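Recap slide: hydroxymethylpyrimidine kinase, sequence and predicted structure.
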Amino acid sequence: MKQYSYPSVMTIAGFDGSGGAGIQADIKAISALGCYATSALTALPVQNTTGVKSIYPIEYMAVQEQIQAIMEDIPPKAIKIGMLHTSELVLTVVETLKKYPKTPLVFDPVMVATSGHKLIEDSTIGTIVEMLFPIIDILTPNLDEAAILAEMEIHTVEDMYSAGKKIKKLGVKNVLLKGGHLKTLELTSLFFDADDKVTAFQQEKYNTNNTHGSGCTLSSAIASYLALGESFVGAISKGQDYVHKAIFHGKDVAIGKGNGPLNHFFNPQILVKHDLV
C-alpha cells in the first residue's frame, strides 16, 4: 500500500488566548493552506483584542526540548519563528536550529503588537541581529519593527526603500518590509532579495480594525508556501494574497472590543499529500 506524508510547517512563537495572533494564528494559517502544523511555545502573553496584559516566560530548556522533539519526529519543510522576547530565548532557538541548516526559516520579528504594546526587551534586539539574522532565510518586519532595526523614522515608500537597504546590511539574506502602517490608499510591501533586487507588491487597503495577527499570519503563510515548493517571490506573493483575502472576508465581523482577527478559513484547503520518500 502506497504511503504519503503531509508537508509540515513548524511555528516557534508565543501564545494568544484570543485566537487572532501568535501560535494560534500560525496554526490556523498553516492548516488553511493545506500544510500540517506543529508548534513550540516560546512565551505565554496574557492578551485579548484590546492588548497585552502581561507576559509569562517559558523555561528555555522546555523551548529547546519542544523544538527538538518535533525536529526528530516530524521534520518540517519550513519553520516560522515569531516571538523571541529575551536574549536567552534567542540563543536557545539559534543553538537548537543550527543543527538543521537546510530547513527554510521565516522570522517575523515580533516587537510591537497591533495594539501598540511593545513585546520585546531592548537588549534582545542586538542578540537577534548578531545571532539569529545570519541563520534565517527571510525577515518580515512591519514598519514599527523596521524603524527600530533601521534606526530611522519611516513615513513614505521612499523611506521604506532606505530602511530595507539598512536592514539588509545587518546581515539578513532576504527582507520583506510590510507597508501596512503607511497612511496611503494602497498597501505597498517591498521584498529585498539576497542579490539586492527589490520587488514591490501593491494591494488595496481595507478600512477595518480587524488586522490583529496579520503579521503572524503572513509569515506563517510564506513558510507554508515554501513548504509547498514555492520560490521566495512566489511564497511572498501567494502569502500576501492569502492575508489580503483573509482581511477582506473578516473586515466587517465583530470579535472582541479591540483589533479583531482575520478570517483564516475563508477558503480552507484539504491537507496536501506528498509521496512518502
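Residues 66 and 163 are 35 Å apart (CA to CA).
Helices lie at 22-32, 60-73, 87-97, 122-132, 143-150, 157-168, 214-227, 232-250.
(End of recap.)
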